[in-house]
Each structure stands twice: as structure tokens, then as C-alpha cells.
Design goal:
The chain is mostly helical and 468 residues long. The chain has 23 helices and two strands. 67% of the residues lie in helices and 2% in strands. It has a two-stranded antiparallel sheet with strand order 1-2. The chain is globular and about 65 Å long.
Amino acid sequence: MSDTPHDLGGDTHIVTEDEAATPPDAAAIRKFAVPSLLGIVTFLTPVRVDGNWTILMGLISDTGRDLVGAGMPWIVFALLCVSAIGTLYAISIGRNTLVEGSLFARLFHVAPIWVVLRVVGLIMGTMTMFQIGPQMFWGPATGGTVLNDLAVNIVPIFLFAGLLMPFLTDYGLMEFVGTLLKRVFRKLFTLPGRSAIDALASWMSSAPVGVLITIQQYTSGHYTAREAAVIATNFSVVSVPFALLVAKTVGVDHRFPEYYLAVVLTGVITAMIMPRIPPLSRFKDTPFDTLHPLRETHASGGGSLMKEAVTLAAKRAGTAVPLKEQFRIAAGHILDIWFGLVPAVIAVGGAGLIIAEYTPILGWLTAPLVPVLEFFGLPEASAAAPALIAGFLDMFLPALLGSSIESEITRFVVGVLSVTQLIYMSEIGILMIKCEIPLRFFHLVTVFLLRTLIGLPIVMLFANFVVY
């Protein structure tokens, strides 16, 4: 995937309280309410199918994958080929003819690390598809798992999620919910009210999009360094489709409502604690632009918060681009994910599984964690420990490592923690280090470990007393 997300469209537009002066008419409210309701039904409403709970978006992606059937691995292989060949062309023969800002340039003219991941992904995908080379690269526990179990789910999930996600993010739902929550955010998370909208962008859209919005808000003077660091490391949660994918990978998708409730509960409690302890509490409350800070002001008059929320939501819906343009932008998102994420999953996920299956490295690194997990009564603690730490490298590794664990409660805990640890270097970790927010590598390591230690007892209690 490229260094930063593209085609954000209206996602970065934050409507201020001063814009909420004129009440919306019925047509404006309908333009907000109807698409937002569709987004809620598609992504946030549980449905029961064949005795198991899921979300409508998951049901649609499963149906699409099943219709293609045995052809899905070949579609993945085709994407790997296009990604690697297009990237090699863009950085060599075609680099002088690329049009800056064009879709081709955005998809294929990427940083060196992504070039390596795309080429390695194609090599490992080829070895798995045709079962050539050492078996450690293409066996069912390594390359076979990431290609046939994980990648074939990524493709349909992000196809349908990309097409339907604008109904959740672009028609005022985030402004509506964010406005209602903004007073709570200051008390619970020590953050300004507008960060409620920013946080929802991460939770409802994707972690890179959320981090990018945080960077933009910091550099434009709306956040201080501390606030930006807190938001980036505590609210950059993977999207609902990603969470569903993790749940499927660890085999607990039949409990998705409970799974996602555990993710939300753990994320909220952790986000209440982390800003109040080092290292995040030690960041300075100074804006990026000290000459032109744009700090939050309180609305005058003490009007109805619900009225303000509806007004802001309707105004946001009024700025939404036509549906045809929405789908064009979504197509860019989908291709960016397909050509960037799929090879990275094959390369990083495959490498992580090879290390886990054929070397004792993860066992050595996580040996001190085993007694802690046993203290909390987690079954198969020695198998779970490597999965809990592997998330620092890539968010999929815990799910891949945990998928072979027999205990369902342990797979549930691994799956929830892998989504709530947040700091994974394969994507947003690199983005955080490269951006203007003063986060450094040792900050990310510390935050990752603290989030794991804080989240573990929360998830264990939830799993033991609510789910199992």
C-alpha cells in the first residue's frame, strides 16, 4: 500500500460549531438519515444466519466468495501479479512518463518498502499456487494459510466494504454521533470535542484514514502534540470489515456481536487510561503551528445538543458528492487495498508464520509472558503468547498464529487483543513515525506493550463472564 491513503474526498472536512446556525429542512435531514441508516444496517446491525451471528456486510462478502469458489485463489494470484509488475514498471521504465496524482501513479509509485513487499508477495504467492520450492514457504501452515484462508477473504470483504462504506462515513453519521459524544470525550479521554469525529473516522473507516486525519488536524493547529499522539495511538482501530476478517480467521465469527462488543469495551477503557500515564501523558500540550493555533471554542447560547448534531449531520450530507462519484472514489480505495494490502499480507503474514512454525524465536521472546497468561487462567498459554506479541509486526499475524489454537476462548482473546493493540508496524506504525506527530519508535513499543497488558484482563473477564 502507498505511504498514505488516497482519495479521501470529504472525509477530512470537519464542520465547526459556527456552521450549525441554520436549521436544516426536511429534505436535508432525509439526505443525512436515509444513507446513514443504510450504513448502520449494513455494518453495525447484527444478523443471524444458520444459527450464527454476523453483520450484513459479512454475509454479502461470504456469498460473493462462495459464488466464485475455487477461482478465488487465482483472483488473488492475478492481483499479486498486477501489483508487482505495475510497481516495477512504475519505478523503472515508466517513472518518467507517470502523471503525478494519476490513479496509476498513486497505486504503483510507492515507497521502497512497499516495492519489496509486493515483489516478495508475488514470489511467495507463486510458490504457494504452484507448490514449488521449499515446503516451508507454501505448506498448509504457512503460505497455504495466508493465501487460501486469509487473502481469499480480504478480496471480497474490501470490494463490498469499499462500495458501501461511504454510507457510513460521508453522509453525516460521524458528525451526528461525534457531536453527541464530544462533551464526553473531554471528560473521559482528555481530548477536545472535535476529536470525537476524528475517532469515529478511525473506528468506522480504517486505521490509516484515521491517522491521516489526525495528522491533518495536528498540522492545521486544531490538536496539540499530546492530543494528536493520544488520538493516533488510541483511536486508530481497524474498521468493522477488518474486525470481521480477524474474527473469521480465528474462528469466532459466529460470535461477532460479542466479539465486537469486547473490542469496543476494551478500546474505550484502554483509551481512558493511556492518556493519563506515560509516555502519552508526558507529551507537551503545544500546537504544531504555535503562531496560528485553532483551538476549540465552546458554542454560545447553550442550545440543544441533538439539534446541533442533526444540523451538522445534514450539512455534511449536503456536501457529499454524487453516488456515481462515490463509487469512483471507492474504486480507487479498493484497488489501493488490493494492490497494497494483499501482497503485504502474503509477505509479512507468510514470513511470520514461517518464523513461528520453523524457528523458536517467538517462543524465546514471549516466554516471560506465558506465566502472566497462566495467572489469568488462559488455556494454551504457551501457544497464545507468541500470537499476542506478533501483532506489533502486523495486525494479521496474531489471527494467523491463533487460528490453530484449539481453545475457542483463547482464540477469542487473541482475536480481540489483536484488534485493540493498534500499533502494528507494517502499516500505521511506519506512518506514525514518518509524520509530523512527535511519536518515535520507542513510544510505539511502549504503547503497544501497555495496551496489551491493560487489555488482557479486560478481555479475559469479558470472555469468561459474558461469552463463555
